[in-house]
Design goal:
about 45 residues; mainly alpha
Length: about 45
């Protein structure tokens, strides 16, 4: 992710747990999970 602007967002623990359940593998970033959700939402 070097070279990208990074920001921090606040999530409830419940939301973070829900996102964690959507991970394909343990090292997948939350950014990847959120981008996948956004892509699916655009369909």
């Amino acid at each position: 992710m070097s070279g990208k602007n990074i920001t921090t967002i606040k999530l409830s623990k419940e939301t973070a747990k829900s996102l964690a359940k959507l991970k394909i593998h343990p090292r997948q970033s939350y950014e990847e999970v959120i981008l996948k959700l956004l892509k699916e939402h655009k369909k």
